[in-house]
């Protein structure tokens, strides 16, 4: 009888020691931010028409546009290039604005070789950044119309 | 009259007393768990400057005493330009969409005493161009508190 009672006490003691669940729970959230850059032009095409050329001088036509840039990377630059060289006796120059905090290169002459138009471009989300084109031709230039495509590229400095 | 021997009487009293003490000392039991120990929020490259990613998760809870409130907090700050929000969708009275920080934030109230409660929550991660590219991990701790 004494043994039975002793065992009963032991069982009750063990039953009193129950494992209480925690009153909190945790989750680990994993997320990734991908590097991205997106440059868009306000105008798909522009016309630059020189209607007259002064004797011994050069004619000029201008056009304005803008671009938008969304970028989350540091130390980028923007370059511009043509798909092919300009015809003889003609030039195309560009003065591009720079996003906030970046450095504009000022007026540059465009060619098939990429040229920097803005540098020190950091994280930015901005639109309406100016583009100003100037087309010049001398009397030696051909009068046939032609097309050139300007490509803007954002890349690491 | 048949009386039990004295040692047996004492043993029986001890058993009854021990049982009474054990029953009185048992605290209210509360527990929480989730099947999703890790969640991954992902999205592709954006076309605009802000990314919003949402995902839902589920917690089960049990508590012998109510009502309870649900609070949550992060283990460390988020990267710059990033915001993490959470909203209880069902299972309790939601406090609405709340921003998570390292400080405890109440998410819901009036969690009832129940053996099998369920909470549905929605995470909303918002980041923009100021968030440096990379992989990040943060632990969210949810706690049931007396209301």
Description:
The complex is a heterodimer of chains A (157) and B (147). Chain A is mainly β and 157 residues long. Chain A contains one helix and ten strands. In chain A, strands 2-3-9-5-7 form a five-stranded antiparallel sheet, with no helix packed on it. A four-stranded antiparallel sheet of chain A has the order 6-8-4-10, with no helix packed on it. The longest helix of chain A has 15 residues, at 2-16. The radius of gyration of chain A is 34 Å and the shape is elongated. With 147 residues, chain B is mainly beta. Helix content of chain B is 14%, strand content 53%. Chain B contains one helix and ten strands; from the N terminus they run H-E-E-E-E-E-E-E-E-E-E. Chain B has one helix at residues 6-25; strands spanning 30-34, 38-41, 50-63, 68-74, 82-90, 93-94, 98-99, 105-111, 114-128, 134-146. Chain B has a five-stranded antiparallel sheet with strand order 1-3-9-5-7, with no helix packed on it. Mean pLDDT of chain B is 79; it is low at 9-27. Classes of the chains: A mainly beta (157), B mainly beta (147). Strand 1 (24-33) of chain A pairs antiparallel with strand 10 (134-146) of chain B, so a sheet runs across the interface.
Layout: helices, strands, pairs:
The complex is a heterodimer of chains A (157) and B (147).
Chain A (H helix, E strand, L loop, with lengths): L1 H15 L7 E10 L3 E5 L16 E14 L4 E7 L7 E7 L6 E2 L2 E3 L5 E7 L2 E15 L11 E7 L1
Antiparallel strand pairs in A: 2-3, 3-9, 4-8, 4-10, 5-7, 5-9, 6-8
Chain B lengths: L5 H20 L4 E5 L3 E4 L8 E14 L4 E7 L7 E9 L2 E2 L3 E2 L5 E7 L2 E15 L5 E13 L1
Antiparallel strand pairs in B: 1-3, 3-9, 4-8, 4-10, 5-7, 5-9, 6-8
């Amino acid at each position: 009888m004494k043994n039975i009672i002793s065992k009963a006490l032991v069982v009750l003691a063990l039953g009193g020691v129950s494992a209480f669940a925690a009153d909190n729970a945790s989750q680990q959230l994993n997320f990734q931010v991908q590097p991205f850059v997106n440059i868009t032009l306000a105008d798909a095409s522009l016309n630059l028409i020189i209607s007259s050329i002064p004797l011994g001088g050069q004619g000029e036509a201008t056009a304005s546009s803008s671009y938008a840039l969304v970028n989350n990377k540091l130390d980028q630059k923007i370059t511009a290039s043509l798909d092919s060289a300009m015809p003889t006796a003609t030039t195309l120059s560009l003065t591009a604005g720079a996003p906030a905090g970046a450095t504009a290169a000022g007026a540059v002459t465009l060619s098939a070789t990429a040229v920097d138009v803005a540098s020190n471009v950091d994280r930015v989300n901005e639109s309406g950044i100016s583009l100003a084109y100037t087309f010049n031709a001398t009397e030696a230039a051909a009068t046939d119309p032609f097309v050139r495509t300007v490509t803007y590229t954002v890349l690491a400095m | 009259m048949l009386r039990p021997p004295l040692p047996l009487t004492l043993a029986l009293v001890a058993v009854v007393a021990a049982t009474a003490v054990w029953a009185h000392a048992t605290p209210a039991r509360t527990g929480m768990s989730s099947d999703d120990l890790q969640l991954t929020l992902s999205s592709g490259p954006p076309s605009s400057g802000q990314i919003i990613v949402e995902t839902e998760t589920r917690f089960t809870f049990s508590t012998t005493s109510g009502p309870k409130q649900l609070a949550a907090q992060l283990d460390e700050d988020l990267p710059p330009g990033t915001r993490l929000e959470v909203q209880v969708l069902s299972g309790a009275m939601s406090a609405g969409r709340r921003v998570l920080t390292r400080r405890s934030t109440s998410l819901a109230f009036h969690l009832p005493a129940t053996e099998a409660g369920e909470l549905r929550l929605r995470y909303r991660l918002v980041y923009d161009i100021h968030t440096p590219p990379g992989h990040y991990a943060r632990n969210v701790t949810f706690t049931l508190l007396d209301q």
